[in-house]
Specification:
With 482 residues, the protein is an alpha+beta fold. It has one domain (16-481). The protein has nine helices and 27 strands. Helix 5 (234-240) packs across helix 6.
Length: 482
């Protein structure tokens, strides 16, 4: 697909009404996500993580690292709902987050989520491998069709906040626009007239702001952005559940994901501020759910990961590491390219005798509601006929971008993309597609195929070869998806 770089426009005014989503996978998420989604040498962040300064002892000015940014965004018209999860490991009292936002957020605009809401989104969109076995060429009865089983993947993430506003005189350059609680977080929303004043205010509130923070804040202030500052209230965190209390005693932090909604003319994801926390390469996984179709980036190269690739039998247990190596090579060979890994329906799909290995888990209606579908302007009850049609028309897009400090000159801006297909064909007959095909609807997913030839006896005159399904003698009807 042609790159949109030739027609790119300056981002200044485009970002003025957009929201920076900083999402980091938490310790809770690591229990669910496959390792190829968490490459060891890769870190990621989009918001600025700051550490409160202790009342005594040395001042800690190092930034808190993120591992991977995982974003879920719902979009319809000018309404955007963003949900994000965080990867933070350390004392809860040390966790704080600074996020640029396009408007002043109030208590009704922000809510916490259970980490499980990210699971169905991750599971539906992730690259996968389908393993097929050639069936007995001399069957006693007809061979049944195939069924793929989704990879258990998910994110449970976590987010950050505590009131950064003790009773003190505010510098004239900074104004507290809102102050409220959201779950275990104490939140303030700030406006500022200059970046140095904002950095000074944060330091006065005893936050260990990374060096050069004023320069990172400046572009957002010039575009009229506000700043969402969130810090964990340890007392409320411990009271959330016995699991939270136990995690605190064990030195782990289980933080709830956060969700915002807002209206903006432009659809964008500012991520430059997170470079202040960068420790090298960063991974950004963006999931966009919309009844309006597929999305691409408007100001970076758009590429697809090829689908239906054959995958060697000898490496069946090494799929996660293989995909990590493949994605690292693609990112290195095509710098500043955002790779689409999924663009398809959110409804679940089963395999059949005519479509072996086609199963997709889909995104549940309950997960969509939790992620903020009811905040979109066209929302109707899912149980109605209109609601079921709307649910069938929802498209999930997954984009994956790996970058270093030099690979993120501008924040990401999104635009609608044309429908494509590939990777939804029957796995027993599918051919490798370097690029998906134009289509009337979006049905594209990254899929690898492993085929095991029949090795048993052939004891009939007219054997039927190339009949593919599940492991012979197993109770599954088709290929497995890892």
């Amino acid at each position: 697909m042609a790159s949109p770089l030739a027609g790119r426009r300056p981002l200044g005014p485009l970002v003025a009404r957009t929201l920076l989503l900083c999402s980091l996978l938490t310790l809770g998420a690591l229990a669910f996500l496959p390792t190829w989604l968490l490459p060891a040498p890769v870190a990621a962040m989009c918001g600025m993580m700051v550490r409160p300064v202790p009342r005594s002892g040395p001042v800690e000015r190092s930034a808190l690292p993120n591992r991977e940014t995982v974003v879920v965004m719902l979009r319809e018209g000018t309404r955007t709902v963003l949900a994000f999860q965080n990867d933070y490991r350390g004392p809860a009292e040390d966790f704080a987050l600074v996020v640029p936002v396009p408007v002043v957020l109030h208590e009704g605009d922000v809510r916490t989520l259970h980490p499980s809401v990210f699971q169905s989104v991750q599971r539906a969109a992730q690259p996968r491998v389908v393993e097929l076995w050639e069936q007995d060429p001399c069957p006693a009865r007809a061979v049944s069709g195939g069924r793929g089983m989704g990879l258990a993947a998910s994110g449970g993430g976590q987010s950050a906040a505590q009131n950064a506003v003790p009773d003190s005189v505010e510098p004239p350059a900074v104004r507290v626009e809102a102050s409220f609680q959201a779950g275990e977080y104490d939140v303030v929303v700030l406006s500022a007239s200059d970046s140095l004043g904002l950095e000074t205010w944060l330091r006065d509130q005893r936050y260990a702001v990374p060096e050069g923070a004023a320069s990172a804040f400046r572009p957002y202030l010039e575009e009229g952005m506000k700043f969402f500052v969130a810090k964990v209230n340890v007392g409320r965190l411990a009271a959330l559940s016995p699991d939270h209390a136990e995690s605190l005693r064990a030195g782990r932090v289980m933080l709830s994901p956060l969700r915002f909604h807002y209206d903006s003319e432009r659809f964008a994801l500012p991520v430059r501020l997170g470079l202040a926390n960068s420790q090298g390469e960063q991974d950004l996984a963006i999931h966009i759910l919309s009844p309006e179709g597929r999305y691409t980036t408007a100001n970076y190269r758009n590429r697809f990961v090829s689908t239906n690739r054959r995958y060697g039998q000898a490496s069946v247990g090494d799929f996660e590491a293989m995909y990590e190596r493949l994605f690292a090579t693609m990112s290195r060979n095509t710098p500043r390219a955002v790779f689409t890994e999924y663009a398809g329906p959110v409804v679940s799909q089963r395999s059949s005798s005519s479509c072996v290995g086609c199963a997709r888990s889909g995104v549940s209606q309950a997960a969509l509601d939790a992620l903020g579908a009811d905040q979109l302007p066209g929302h109707v009850a899912w149980g109605s006929a209109e609601g079921q049609q709307r649910y069938a028309d929802f498209v999930l897009t997954r984009m994956h971008y790996r970058y270093g400090p030099a690979g993120l000159p501008d924040d990401l801006v999104f635009q609608r993309g044309r429908p494509v297909s590939g990777g939804f064909e029957s796995a027993d007959r599918a051919r490798t597609l370097r690029q998906p095909r134009p289509s009337a609807r979006n049905e594209y997913g990254v899929r690898f195929v492993i085929k095991h030839r029949w090795t048993g006896p052939v004891q009939c005159r007219q054997p039927r070869r190339n009949q593919w399904g599940g492991r012979p003698g197993g109770d599954n009807l088709g290929g497995f998806v890892f």
